[in-house]
Design a protein that fits this description.
Elements: H1 2-29, E1 36-39, H2 41-47, H3 51-86, H4 92-117, H5 122-149, E2 153-156, H6 173-186, H7 191-209, H8 211-262, H9 269-348
Parallel strand pairs: 1-2
Helix pairs in contact: 2-6, 3-4, 3-5, 5-6, 6-7, 7-8, 7-9, 8-9
InterPro entries: Chaperone_Skp (IPR005632), Skp_dom_sf (IPR024930)
GO biological process, one term: protein stabilization
Keywords: Coiled coil, Signal
């Protein structure tokens, strides 16, 4: 039986290898690349939210069975010790009877061990029963990711198919875990939190699928922040400069006014008129200079606002693209669920 199972596993492995090789050959012949990913089922199960609880339940049952086995072993050892002690006082018939009873208990113990911990025992059966729902969730998540990201093959690293090398960038395990965790938390989250989580998951998937894109986006965000900071600094500097100019102009006007007051008694009416005209001309010149500087500052401010508006429009376009990716993924998932539901209904009919 064991040889037959091993033969089936070996044949399955060679069949998968042949299938992959055939797919690569066909893709190369058509000038297309084959997109391959893999998961580590053992790693996913260890990290899955529901696995710890299922594992704990199974360990509690196994502990009870082990205690029952120890009780049986203790009883058998006690009977053996009693037989060895009383052997000289017993007849051959009684000795044979007790040995037969001990042998029966030993056989019963072996049968019980096989029933609980054997290859087809209760432990393996209940383990499969407890883990199967989690495995089904993993398979569903893998199918959704594969369809959304256009993967041709997704292998299980922990299965019988030996993988001599696997690059980390093709590992989908963490992405599958995010899907499982999101599904569990979705019932406890508000609609706003669900949207934020989906947006973050989309960014995480983009990072896993194309790390360079995230790095480029990070650099763009840093450049944007630097531009905004520079614009704010220029704005503050312009405001301070404008204030300094106004203060200096007021001071100059005040000084001229004071000088004009001191010379008022020694100047005649004509002199007063000339001084007043000069003061007015100077004030007009200062006003023109201030107006020019103010206009220049306004132009710079308008240019900064236009650049900010352009950056906001680009950000809006990126957000719309991400939103469309999420909507397409949800749509594909719904279509798949409807197809599965329709297929089940057809099978029932």
């Amino acid at each position: 039986m064991i040889v037959e199972i091993n033969f089936i596993n070996v044949m399955r492995k060679y069949f998968l290898i042949a299938l992959v090789a055939l797919a690569f050959s066909a893709a190369n012949a058509q000038g297309k690349g084959v997109k391959v990913g893999y998961i580590d089922m053992d790693y996913i199960l260890e990290k899955a939210p529901d696995y710890a609880e299922a594992k704990n339940q199974l360990e509690q049952k196994a502990q009870v069975w082990k205690q029952e086995i120890e009780v049986k072993k203790t009883e058998i050892n006690r009977l053996k010790d009693n037989l060895n002690t009383e052997k000289v006082l017993l007849t051959k018939e009684l000795i044979a009877e007790r040995e037969e009873a001990i042998a029966f208990l030993e056989k019963d113990l072996l049968d019980y061990q096989q029933k609980r911990f054997g290859p087809n025992g209760d432990l393996m059966i209940q383990k499969a029963t407890l883990i199967k729902p989690i495995q089904d969730q993993v398979f569903t998540a893998v199918q959704d990711i594969a369809e959304a990201q256009k993967y041709d093959f997704v292998f299980d690293k922990s299965s019988d198919m030996t993988m001599l090398f696997a690059a980390q960038r093709f590992d989908l395990s963490d992405r599958v875990l995010r899907v499982l965790v999101r599904a569990q938390k979705k019932e406890q989250m508000s609609k706003k939190q669900v949207k934020e989580q989906e947006k973050q998951d989309a960014l995480d998937d983009m990072a896993a699928e194309n790390p360079d894109q995230i790095e480029r986006q990070k650099k763009l965000d840093e450049k944007k922040a630097a531009r905004e900071k520079l614009a704010e600094e220029r704005k503050l500097a312009a405001a301070e400069k404008k204030k300094a100019i106004e203060d200096r102009r007021k001071q100059q006007l005040e000084e001229r006014k004071n000088k004009a007051g001191k010379k008022e008694n020694s100047k005649d009416e004509k002199g007063n008129t000339v001084a007043a005209n000069k003061t007015a001309e100077k004030a007009a010149t200062d006003s023109i200079m201030v107006k020019k500087k103010t206009d220049a500052e306004e132009k710079r401010k308008t240019a900064v606002e236009e650049r900010q508006k352009l950056l906001d429009e680009r950000k809006k376009i990126l957000d719309e693209k991400r939103k469309k990716i999420i909507e397409d993924r949800e749509k594909a998932k719904k279509e798949k669920e409807e197809a599965l539901k329709k297929k089940k209904e057809e099978n029932k009919n």
